[in-house]
Amino acid sequence: MAGKITAAFFVFVTVAFLANVGFVVGNPAIATGYDPLEVCIENCAQCKKMLGAWFEGPLCAESCITFKGKLIPECENFASISPFLNKL
């Protein structure tokens, strides 16, 4: 009797697992979704913290709003932040 219960349990678990495989989503664990404008402005703030007076944070934020977050600055990528650097 114990063998039948174990086999039935194994079959149930296997079927339940296979039924749920189609519902697995490989997206990052973001509850609200990906907002490029928000990421852009957060990256501007991060670059301002990293580079200080060398980085024009308000200009970066304005470009985020103008381009609706399509040009996201990366603080370690010179090409993406060069428009916002000043000579002091």
TrEMBL record:
It is found in: Secreted. Keywords: Disulfide bond, Hormone, Neuropeptide, Secreted, Signal. Its main location: secreted. GO terms for cellular component: extracellular region. Pfam families: Eclosion (PF04736). One of its GO terms (biological process) is neuropeptide signaling pathway. One of its GO terms (molecular function) is ecdysis-triggering hormone activity. Neuropeptide that triggers the performance of ecdysis behaviors at the end of a molt. It triggers adult behavior patterns: larval, pupal and adult ecdysis, and plasticization during the molt. This is Eclosion hormone. It comes from Spodoptera litura (Asian cotton leafworm). The gene is LOC111355998.
